Amino acid sequence: MLYKKCQIIVLIPIFLFHVVTSFAQQRDSRVREYLSPIRIVWQQESQLIQGAEYLLRSGHGQANLVNNELCKLSSTGQQHPAILFDFGKELQGGLQIVTGMPASHAPVTIRVRLGESVSEAMCDIDEVNGATNDHAMRDFVISVPWLGVLEVGNSGFRFARIDLLDDSAELHLKEIRAISIFQDIPYKGSFRCNDERLNQIWQTGAYTVHLNMQDYIWDGIKRDRLVWIRDLHPEVMTVNTVFGYNEVIPKSLDLIRDSTPLPQWMTMCTYSLWWILIQRDWYLYQGNLDYLKEQKGHLCDLLQLIMTRIGEDGLEKFNDNEGRFLDWPSCENPLYTKSFH
User: Fold this and answer.
1) Which residue range or ranges hold the Alpha-L-rhamnosidase six-hairpin glycosidase domain (predicted)?
2) What is the reported pTM?
């Protein structure tokens, strides 16, 4: 009897696990790494900041009751301290904020600014300097808890600025860490020459595409965090030569196909042409004939649609509202430049 009860007890959590996972619509295959800042670039009202150096130590993401060896920011009615952190490299993700135990248990209001450069993390959104919150929030106000952990942000950045906004308040910071979210995949392709600057440029380009390989492949980790089919071809060729097969490419191609059923163009007519070229090059590099066969219906119908825009003289006859779009024009003829970006 006892043996049967033990069997039931063991089977219950297994059953519950299968029940819970059966409801999951998507599981994240990416990894998360936590990075402590490597330096403090700048401080505002530094006389109101104590122990900032503690935030440069490695953390573990857990609040505790000890409440020592932490950074304390204290504001007045007119003075509000701020700190700018450098996490050492560009990343895609957010911030983890671990707090301590100030005298007041009330949540504390802070402003967070993320930037790929020091100047971006220091600037305001004023419709003049180009800084925006489009696609990803890089400038926002939040409340942090007393003795807790809060994870915020989802953008591309290296630097982060934190301002204490409340008047006559105290903020205890035990840890500030960047959350780097990425695919943990090997670099199969490589490049090396006798020009170290050129080697660094290649590595930066490969790393940039790596950061864009998230749930889908994006145009950028800050803006645009979109499957931007017009710009996807150079990224796909980078994936082909540096990383090899990766599911984000067919997943992204399928997304834009399903989002724009025919006779719609994939935003613009030229974007649909790029989808065809990407399908060709993905097959030539990866040789996945089964995937290409899955595209046959859409490819054939799309090509038929394109043929209706070809005149008897062999020239394209796309309508002006169908979105001819070519980058970086070298011709100043208005007939052509109206189609250029």
Assistant:
1) 188-330
2) 0.87
